[in-house]
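Bump. Still looking for Metal-dependent HD superfamily phosphohydrolase structure tokens.
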Amino acid sequence: MAATTHPAHEALLTRWNGLLRAVRDEAQAPDLPDPAPYGLELLRRWAEPQRRYHTTDHLLSVLDRIDLLAGYADDVQNVRLAAWFHDAVYLPDRSTNEERSARLAERALPEAGVDAARAAEVARLVLLTRDHDPAEDDRDGEVLCDADLAVLASPPQEYAAYAAAVREEYGFVPDDAFRAGRARVLRSLLGLPRLFRTPEGQDRWEDVARRNAATELELLEAAGADTGADADAGTGADTESR
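Sorry for the wait, here they are.
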């Protein structure tokens, strides 16, 4: 049976095509490759069967949140490109997804006609989604990380669905190990001075996100999660939000 196409597939492909054309030197347009095959390959990746949270829906949500925060970015086009690539490589049993996604951006973007300096900057932004702790003066990094973490501020029912989807992605991990890894990630996030760096992100999402994460952590601890200090990094390193 053929895979079902996401309802936003064509709209996302249109967004990708426009984005790529906007960042390329259109004076060379006759010699530049068609952006569509690159977008189709990325959308294929986002629809892979091992994904439950890190899906096309997540890509769409991050892109929409970047649009909301666009005024805070120095180069919002770089942020949008980083969103497309930030989970393009996603295998729940690997701890190198961000690095592999960044390398994909560095390979694919120049091939698609994007200059190497921009591709390198996109790869740098992708790597920030490992810990969501950009430097104070990194406006593009702040926008990307805020957009990626905004799911933490979802209404209770949506937050529960998000947490359940993350658990399903890690279905191969035993309950005790998952709870320890997930608790470690939540403690790390709650230990940040601010989850959200842009003024808009702080106003919209900070308080609710902290309440949601703290509540989930309390539930994990009540179910027997340990301090997480000895948890296998591979069981929870990618479970926070992306």
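Residues 227-242 have pLDDT under 50 and may be disordered.

Edit: fixed formatting.
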